[in-house]
Amino acid sequence: MRFWEKIRNGTLPITRSRGRFWDMHQYYCLFNATRVPEFPIDRIYRYFKTEARMQWADKSWNIIVCKDGQVLLQGDVGFFSCFLIFIKQSFRVNLVRFEGYGNDLARKLNLYMDTVVQIALQLAFLRTHGSFAPIYETASTRKFYHGRTETVRGCTHEMVAFGQAIIDGQSKEEQQQLFFAAYEAHNKLMDDCMDGRGIDRHLYGLRKTLENFRIRGSLNIETPEIFTDEAWKVSGGDGNYLLSTSFSGYMADDEVGFYGFVTAMRPDGYGTFYRIGRNSVQLVITDWCQSKSNLSAYGENIKWSLTKLGSLFTYRAKL
């Protein structure tokens, strides 16, 4: 089919943006011959790397229809008030699918599966690198007018105690008790952030306000020590989270659905987007090449961690 001729001479509705007509070049990628690989990880790799050479990456939004009817939405997240990151050859991505259990079991045991996954991610990093990591999880503040997100800093004292108990091989009863302490601590943090009691957006606002005052020359205040202290960056400040994570929704009947991903904030860290199904968890993990990170080990340890956690809360159910 002569798609360009149909687009140019067809009856597409007139679309405006801020009073200006859209250029027809914005429809360029609507018709595409992208091949559909057999395996999901190959599919992600082609969509965002090798086959991405056919897309105009400077466009805010690309819609790609593949030969089998699958649709790829490729967007510049900077357009949506988030971060813009260029994907280069140093970037790696992998798909992890855990099928041991999912939301059905969690609901039966009165557990929130997202918190279980968050604890598993931290445990996986600990098992991979032998240390704990500052972790970022997105919390929604949509209950507020113009609310967007807040940061859940999930590396709590309770999480450290639980992780250490796993590494030290403490008794199952002790591990179970510490797991639920970490679980409750994380849920409390999430509730606080969703209710507007987080700290990151508040501190960011204060910092940007000071910068604006300096630019205008109306006020000259030294940068507060909290932003210059070494602990600020070690704990994840200024985009230094070793684990950048986000829960991107549920999978009805464990269907494959869409694949979303986030790049690692640091060269030695990981990005992790995940979806939760009834009996599975699907994760897309990323890192940067030639760094301290180990993507394959991290992925395997995520599955190990979820299995380990499952043994703890199912053990509790038997008591």
UniProtKB/TrEMBL annotation:
InterPro entries: Carn_acyl_trans (IPR000542), CAT-like_dom_sf (IPR023213), Cho/carn_acyl_trans (IPR039551), Cho/carn_acyl_trans_2 (IPR042231). One of its GO terms (cellular component) is peroxisome. The keyword Transferase applies. It holds the Pfam family Carn_acyltransf. It comes from the Eukaryota. GO terms for molecular function: carnitine O-octanoyltransferase activity. Keywords: Acyltransferase, Transferase. The keyword Transferase applies. Residues 1-51, 90-302 form the Choline/carnitine acyltransferase domain. Belongs to the carnitine/choline acetyltransferase family. This is Carn_acyltransf domain-containing protein.
